[in-house]
Design a protein that fits this description.
alpha+beta, Beta-Lactamase, Helix Hairpins, Heat Shock Protein 90, 9 helices, two-component regulatory system, transferase, membrane
């Protein structure tokens, strides 16, 4: 639930509860006030009745819907009764107010003895009239409030929305920030409550910017400090191998040395590439890319490796246009096709298939190698993980970063990598599935 809706419901609920609590209290107060007013009327009425000289006048008898009835007693005899069926005394012969039941309802009675005339005057009024009056008074007071609750809800909603506007602007500013934009956030008409939040966010951006800067410097330093000595090692190892050309034992050792240097160079390049394609830092320059042209360029760059193992590679299927970064997608396909060549025997087939399915574009790479067990499908995407470790069955050098890099690049493009067993070539099948957000033609 949003803060705006929560505050609106809470405030409206509190106002409604307070309104009904006030209505109940008002009802009690109205009843007390009505009791006092009507009791005063009954008391005044007794003085009026005792001073009437002609008690036989019919006009003294109220109509059936009259607001009160009365009796006058003298010398313990009923002289006048406003109701023909009422012959007994309405109340005890005792001064004051009381409540009694007669004529099928509850009455509030008042009795008063006038010594000068030796008369008892009884006056009664139905209690339901008092309740009706109190209910009408409280309904007249509360009804406008109840009718105004929907309007009040709208007003509260608008006021809460206005009050939360700075928070919404902060959310919009954060949403509009690019992945590499770690500049401080500034807002006009900033509320005091948001100042600590903005200060904390800006401090966080400052720390992240410093951390990313250090990581970038590390990548640059690593590229310089690691590539240069490795290149020197390669050259010296090559020269040393030529100098020891006639020594078979030394040649074998030099071969191991060269393979170790090559592996170390590969590890360094993959680590630097993995750092470059990290989703938190990478900002791809997306554009429309033709999948057939992309695959052709990657195959051309890897053709010497494929030809060295006398392998065949074919590109089949329907070309499509996708939205992405050409360099990173090229690295992804290069890893997939290079792995297919590495782990397939000599004189085997590698197939690259292009598919278009509904709103998805699929690039499938199949090989004729041993494949991967289904239980390892998830783990092979972990960094530095290799099936069997350094003792891989293929005896092919590797560092376990190729598929990890490929997965990161796929995530940059909102895509997915799916591993399975190739039905036709019996080796590994890897599908790059470009999900929604990519355009296909």
């Amino acid at each position: 639930m949003s803060i705006r809706r929560y505050l609106t419901l809470i405030l409206l609920s509190v106002i409604t509860l307070v309104t009904f609590a006030a209505a109940i209290q008002g009802y009690r107060g109205s009843m007390a006030k009505a009791t006092s007013v009507f009791d005063n009327e009954l008391r005044s009425l007794t003085y009026v009745l005792v001073n009437i000289t002609d008690l036989s006048t019919q006009s003294l008898a109220p109509q059936p819907d009259a607001a009160f009835i009365y009796q006058i007693w003298q010398h313990n005899q009923l002289i006048v009764s406003s109701h023909p069926e009422l012959k007994a005394a309405m109340s005890n012969f005792k001064n004051g107010f009381a409540e009694h039941n007669f004529l099928a309802q509850r009455w509030r009675t008042y009795a008063h003895f006038f010594e000068s005339d030796n008369k008892w005057v009884f006056v009664a009024q139905p209690l339901n009239r008092r309740f009706e009056l109190a209910e009408k008074m409280i309904l007249a007071a509360v009804t406008p409030l109840i009718l105004c609750i929907p309007l009040l809800a709208i007003i509260i909603f608008l006021l809460v929305s206005t009050g939360l506007r700075p928070l919404r602007l902060l959310s919009d500013n954060l949403r509009a920030k690019k992945a590499d934009d770690l500049s401080p956030i500034t807002q006009q008409n900033q509320q005091n409550e948001l100042s600590p939040v903005l200060e904390t966010l800006n401090q966080l951006f400052e720390r992240l910017n410093a951390a990313f800067s250090r990581e970038k410097r590390f990548a640059s330093d690593a590229a310089h400090e690691l590539r240069t000595p490795l290149s020197v090692l390669k050259i010296n190892a090559h020269n040393l191998k030529l100098a020891l050309n006639n020594n078979s034992t030394s040649n074998a050792n030099m071969q191991y040395l060269q393979e170790g240097i090559e592996r170390m160079s590969h590890v360094v390049e993959q680590i630097l590439l993995l750092n470059r394609t990290n989703p938190e830092q990478y900002q791809g320059q997306f554009k429309q890319i033709n999948t057939a042209s992309l695959c052709q360029n990657v195959i051309a760059s890897l053709f010497p490796q494929i030809e060295a193992k006398r392998q065949e590679i074919e590109l089949v299927g329907q070309s499509a246009s996708i939205l992405g970064d050409e360099f990173s997608l090229g690295i992804l396909l290069q890893n997939l096709i290079s792995n297919a060549s590495k782990y397939s025997p000599e004189e085997t087939l590698i197939r690259v298939t292009l598919k278009s399915l509904e709103q998805r574009v699929i690039i499938q790479v199949e090989d004729s190698g041993p494949g991967i067990d289904e239980s390892e499908y998830k783990r092979v995407f972990e960094r530095f993980y290799r099936i069997g470790g350094d003792r891989h069955d293929s005896n092919t050098p590797g560092c376990g970063l190729g598929l990890a890099i490929s997965k990161h690049i796929a995530e940059l493009h909102n895509a997915a990598l799916k591993l399975s067993r190739s039905e036709q070539l019996s080796g590994l099948s890897v599908e790059l599935i470009l999900l929604q957000g990519q355009s296909s033609e």
